[in-house]
Amino acid sequence: MRLFLDTANIDHIRHGVQLGVITGVTTNPSLVSKEGKVDYKRLVQEICSIVPGPVSTEVLSQDVAGMVAEARQIAAWAENVVVKIPASLEGVEATHQLAREGIRVNFTLCFSVNQALLAAAAGATFVSPFVGRLDDIGENGMRLVGDIVEVFKKYPDSIKTQVIAASIRHPHHCVQAAEAGAQIATVPHQVLIQMIRHPLTDIGVSRFMEDWRKVMGEGKNT
Ligand code: E4P
Protein backbone atom coordinates (compact mmCIF):
# COMPACT_ATOMS: atom_id res chain seq x y z
CA MET A 1 0.00 0.00 0.00
CA ARG A 2 1.33 3.43 -0.95
CA LEU A 3 1.07 6.41 1.39
CA PHE A 4 -0.07 9.88 0.41
CA LEU A 5 -0.08 12.85 2.76
CA ASP A 6 -3.46 14.47 3.36
CA THR A 7 -2.46 18.10 3.79
CA ALA A 8 -1.64 21.35 2.03
CA ASN A 9 1.08 22.25 4.53
CA ILE A 10 4.42 22.67 2.78
CA ASP A 11 6.57 21.86 5.83
CA HIS A 12 4.67 18.65 6.47
CA ILE A 13 4.89 17.68 2.80
CA ARG A 14 8.65 18.36 2.68
CA HIS A 15 9.05 16.25 5.81
CA GLY A 16 7.03 13.33 4.42
CA VAL A 17 8.95 13.37 1.15
CA GLN A 18 12.27 13.62 3.01
CA LEU A 19 11.34 10.52 5.00
CA GLY A 20 11.04 8.77 1.65
CA VAL A 21 7.65 7.22 2.35
CA ILE A 22 5.24 9.69 0.79
CA THR A 23 4.49 9.31 -2.91
CA GLY A 24 1.55 11.67 -3.30
CA VAL A 25 -0.57 14.34 -1.66
CA THR A 26 -4.29 14.93 -1.35
CA THR A 27 -5.71 18.36 -0.60
CA ASN A 28 -9.23 19.69 -0.30
CA PRO A 29 -10.68 23.20 0.16
CA SER A 30 -10.70 22.82 3.97
CA LEU A 31 -7.05 21.75 4.07
CA VAL A 32 -6.00 24.59 1.76
CA SER A 33 -7.96 27.09 3.90
CA LYS A 34 -6.01 25.92 6.96
CA GLU A 35 -2.92 27.44 5.34
CA GLY A 36 -4.51 30.91 5.39
CA LYS A 37 -5.42 33.11 2.43
CA VAL A 38 -3.04 31.69 -0.16
CA ASP A 39 -2.67 31.82 -3.93
CA TYR A 40 -4.26 28.43 -4.71
CA LYS A 41 -2.42 27.90 -8.00
CA ARG A 42 0.99 28.82 -6.58
CA LEU A 43 0.48 26.62 -3.53
CA VAL A 44 -0.50 23.62 -5.65
CA GLN A 45 2.42 24.20 -8.00
CA GLU A 46 4.80 24.32 -5.06
CA ILE A 47 3.37 21.08 -3.67
CA CYS A 48 3.67 19.48 -7.12
CA SER A 49 7.33 20.49 -7.33
CA ILE A 50 8.09 18.80 -3.99
CA VAL A 51 6.10 15.58 -4.37
CA PRO A 52 7.17 12.96 -6.88
CA GLY A 53 3.65 11.55 -7.42
CA PRO A 54 0.03 12.63 -7.82
CA VAL A 55 -1.24 15.76 -6.07
CA SER A 56 -5.02 15.83 -5.78
CA THR A 57 -6.53 19.30 -6.11
CA GLU A 58 -10.26 19.84 -5.74
CA VAL A 59 -12.56 21.85 -8.00
CA LEU A 60 -14.90 24.33 -6.33
CA SER A 61 -17.63 24.33 -9.00
CA GLN A 62 -20.57 22.00 -8.67
CA ASP A 63 -22.05 22.08 -12.15
CA VAL A 64 -20.65 19.98 -14.99
CA ALA A 65 -19.43 22.82 -17.22
CA GLY A 66 -17.85 24.62 -14.27
CA MET A 67 -16.12 21.49 -12.97
CA VAL A 68 -14.76 20.61 -16.41
CA ALA A 69 -13.51 24.15 -17.08
CA GLU A 70 -11.89 24.37 -13.65
CA ALA A 71 -10.39 20.89 -13.97
CA ARG A 72 -8.81 21.77 -17.32
CA GLN A 73 -7.16 24.81 -15.74
CA ILE A 74 -5.96 22.88 -12.69
CA ALA A 75 -4.62 20.08 -14.89
CA ALA A 76 -2.44 22.63 -16.70
CA TRP A 77 -0.80 23.80 -13.44
CA ALA A 78 1.57 20.83 -13.20
CA GLU A 79 2.13 17.43 -14.78
CA ASN A 80 1.48 15.49 -11.60
CA VAL A 81 -1.77 17.22 -10.71
CA VAL A 82 -4.90 15.09 -10.30
CA VAL A 83 -8.30 16.78 -10.19
CA LYS A 84 -10.64 15.97 -7.33
CA ILE A 85 -14.28 15.80 -8.36
CA PRO A 86 -17.07 15.22 -5.82
CA ALA A 87 -19.28 12.12 -6.01
CA SER A 88 -22.38 13.78 -7.47
CA LEU A 89 -24.25 13.07 -10.71
CA GLU A 90 -22.60 16.18 -12.15
CA GLY A 91 -19.29 14.79 -10.91
CA VAL A 92 -19.84 11.54 -12.82
CA GLU A 93 -20.45 13.40 -16.06
CA ALA A 94 -17.50 15.71 -15.50
CA THR A 95 -15.27 12.74 -14.68
CA HIS A 96 -16.31 11.02 -17.91
CA GLN A 97 -15.48 14.11 -19.98
CA LEU A 98 -12.17 14.69 -18.23
CA ALA A 99 -11.11 11.04 -18.44
CA ARG A 100 -11.70 11.13 -22.20
CA GLU A 101 -9.36 14.12 -22.38
CA GLY A 102 -6.71 12.22 -20.42
CA ILE A 103 -7.14 14.30 -17.25
CA ARG A 104 -6.74 12.16 -14.13
CA VAL A 105 -9.61 12.36 -11.65
CA ASN A 106 -9.79 11.50 -7.95
CA PHE A 107 -13.50 10.88 -7.30
CA THR A 108 -13.85 12.21 -3.79
CA LEU A 109 -16.37 12.24 -0.94
CA CYS A 110 -17.25 8.63 -1.75
CA PHE A 111 -19.53 6.97 0.80
CA SER A 112 -20.92 3.94 -1.03
CA VAL A 113 -19.94 1.09 -3.35
CA ASN A 114 -22.38 2.43 -5.92
CA GLN A 115 -20.60 5.78 -6.00
CA ALA A 116 -17.32 3.92 -6.45
CA LEU A 117 -18.78 1.83 -9.29
CA LEU A 118 -19.86 5.00 -11.07
CA ALA A 119 -16.42 6.52 -10.54
CA ALA A 120 -14.87 3.47 -12.18
CA ALA A 121 -17.39 3.42 -15.02
CA ALA A 122 -16.75 7.11 -15.70
CA GLY A 123 -13.01 6.49 -15.89
CA ALA A 124 -11.74 7.97 -12.61
CA THR A 125 -8.10 7.16 -11.86
CA PHE A 126 -8.74 7.15 -8.11
CA VAL A 127 -11.76 6.87 -5.84
CA SER A 128 -11.60 8.09 -2.25
CA PRO A 129 -13.89 6.45 0.30
CA PHE A 130 -13.94 8.63 3.45
CA VAL A 131 -13.44 6.25 6.35
CA GLY A 132 -13.44 8.57 9.37
CA ARG A 133 -16.53 10.47 8.34
CA LEU A 134 -18.50 7.22 8.08
CA ASP A 135 -17.19 6.09 11.46
CA ASP A 136 -18.29 9.47 12.85
CA ILE A 137 -21.93 8.69 12.02
CA GLY A 138 -21.77 5.18 13.47
CA GLU A 139 -21.06 3.31 10.24
CA ASN A 140 -18.03 1.16 9.40
CA GLY A 141 -15.85 3.23 7.07
CA MET A 142 -13.21 0.57 6.61
CA ARG A 143 -15.79 -2.00 5.59
CA LEU A 144 -16.65 0.29 2.67
CA VAL A 145 -12.97 0.37 1.61
CA GLY A 146 -12.85 -3.44 1.73
CA ASP A 147 -16.13 -3.78 -0.18
CA ILE A 148 -14.96 -1.46 -2.96
CA VAL A 149 -11.63 -3.29 -3.23
CA GLU A 150 -13.39 -6.66 -3.43
CA VAL A 151 -15.87 -5.53 -6.06
CA PHE A 152 -13.17 -3.89 -8.20
CA LYS A 153 -11.06 -7.06 -7.96
CA LYS A 154 -13.80 -9.02 -9.73
CA TYR A 155 -13.32 -6.91 -12.86
CA PRO A 156 -9.54 -6.66 -13.30
CA ASP A 157 -9.83 -6.19 -17.08
CA SER A 158 -12.28 -3.31 -17.03
CA ILE A 159 -11.73 -1.52 -13.70
CA LYS A 160 -8.38 0.17 -13.29
CA THR A 161 -9.52 2.72 -10.70
CA GLN A 162 -7.33 2.72 -7.58
CA VAL A 163 -8.79 2.96 -4.10
CA ILE A 164 -7.49 5.66 -1.77
CA ALA A 165 -8.53 5.11 1.85
CA ALA A 166 -9.21 8.70 2.92
CA SER A 167 -10.40 10.50 6.03
CA ILE A 168 -7.88 8.49 8.04
CA ARG A 169 -7.96 9.45 11.70
CA HIS A 170 -5.48 7.20 13.51
CA PRO A 171 -2.65 4.72 12.85
CA HIS A 172 -4.87 1.67 13.17
CA HIS A 173 -6.84 2.94 10.17
CA CYS A 174 -3.61 2.55 8.16
CA VAL A 175 -3.27 -1.09 9.20
CA GLN A 176 -6.91 -1.73 8.38
CA ALA A 177 -6.62 0.02 5.00
CA ALA A 178 -3.66 -2.20 4.11
CA GLU A 179 -5.52 -5.31 5.28
CA ALA A 180 -8.55 -4.26 3.23
CA GLY A 181 -6.36 -4.07 0.12
CA ALA A 182 -6.52 -0.32 -0.55
CA GLN A 183 -3.84 0.64 -3.06
CA ILE A 184 -3.24 3.88 -1.18
CA ALA A 185 -3.97 5.45 2.21
CA THR A 186 -3.86 9.22 2.46
CA VAL A 187 -2.85 10.19 5.97
CA PRO A 188 -2.59 13.39 7.99
CA HIS A 189 0.99 14.28 9.00
CA GLN A 190 0.20 13.56 12.65
CA VAL A 191 -0.91 10.02 11.79
CA LEU A 192 2.25 9.47 9.74
CA ILE A 193 4.32 10.33 12.82
CA GLN A 194 2.17 8.09 15.02
CA MET A 195 2.73 5.15 12.65
CA ILE A 196 6.37 4.80 13.74
CA ARG A 197 5.88 5.47 17.41
CA HIS A 198 5.93 2.58 19.89
CA PRO A 199 6.78 2.93 23.59
CA LEU A 200 8.64 -0.42 23.58
CA THR A 201 10.96 0.89 20.84
CA ASP A 202 11.78 3.97 22.94
CA ILE A 203 12.31 1.85 26.07
CA GLY A 204 14.42 -0.60 24.06
CA VAL A 205 16.72 2.11 22.67
CA SER A 206 17.28 3.74 26.09
CA ARG A 207 18.00 0.36 27.68
CA PHE A 208 20.56 -0.53 24.99
CA MET A 209 22.27 2.84 25.49
CA GLU A 210 22.23 2.48 29.27
CA ASP A 211 23.77 -1.03 29.16
CA TRP A 212 26.42 0.14 26.70
CA ARG A 213 27.37 3.16 28.81
CA LYS A 214 27.67 1.03 31.97
CA VAL A 215 30.47 -1.04 30.42
CA MET A 216 31.91 1.08 27.63
CA GLY A 217 31.46 4.59 29.02
CA GLU A 218 30.34 7.46 26.80
CA GLY A 219 32.53 6.58 23.79
CA LYS A 220 31.15 5.05 20.59
CA ASN A 221 32.68 1.96 18.98
CA THR A 222 34.12 3.83 15.98
C1 E4P B 1 -9.18 13.03 1.21
O1 E4P B 1 -8.79 13.16 0.08
C2 E4P B 1 -9.66 14.12 2.07
O2 E4P B 1 -8.85 15.25 1.87
C3 E4P B 1 -9.55 13.81 3.55
O3 E4P B 1 -9.08 12.51 3.77
C4 E4P B 1 -10.74 14.20 4.37
O4 E4P B 1 -10.51 13.83 5.70
P1 E4P B 1 -11.38 14.37 6.93
O5 E4P B 1 -12.65 13.60 6.97
O6 E4P B 1 -10.51 14.11 8.13
O7 E4P B 1 -11.60 15.84 6.67
What would you note in describing this structure?
It is a single chain. This protein has a single domain (2-197), classed as TIM Barrel (Alpha-Beta Barrel). 52% of the residues lie in helices and 17% in strands. It is built from 11 helices and 8 strands. Strands 1-2-3-4-5-6-7-8 form an 8-stranded parallel barrel, surrounded by 8 helices. Strand 5, helix 6 (113-122) and strand 6 form a beta-alpha-beta unit. The longest helix is centred in the C-terminal third of the chain and has 18 residues, at 199-216. It starts with a strand and ends in a 6-residue tail after the last helix. Erythose-4-phosphate is lined by residues 6, 26, 28, 31, 108, 128, 130, 132-133, 166-167, 186.
What's this entry about, in short?
This protein has 222 residues and is an alpha/beta fold.
Q: How does the helix and strand content classify structurally?
A: alpha/beta
User: How far is the N terminus from the C terminus?
Assistant: 38 Å
Runs in which pLDDT lies below 50 for 5 or more consecutive residues are none
Share of residues in helices: 40-55%
The average pLDDT value, as a whole number, equals 97
Architecture, CATH level 2? Answer: Alpha-Beta Barrel
Give the full name of the CATH homologous superfamily. Aldolase class I
CATH class: Alpha Beta
**Ligands bound, unique:** erythose-4-phosphate
Query: Order of helices and strands, N to C?
Result: EHEHHEHEHEHEHHEHEHH
With strands numbered from the N-terminus, the spatial order across the biggest sheet is 1-2-3-4-5-6-7-8
For this structure, the CATH topology is: TIM Barrel
The count of helical stretches stands at 11
- Biggest sheet overview: 8 strands, parallel, barrel
Strand content: 15-25%
Radius of gyration (CA) equals 20 Å
Count of the domains: 1
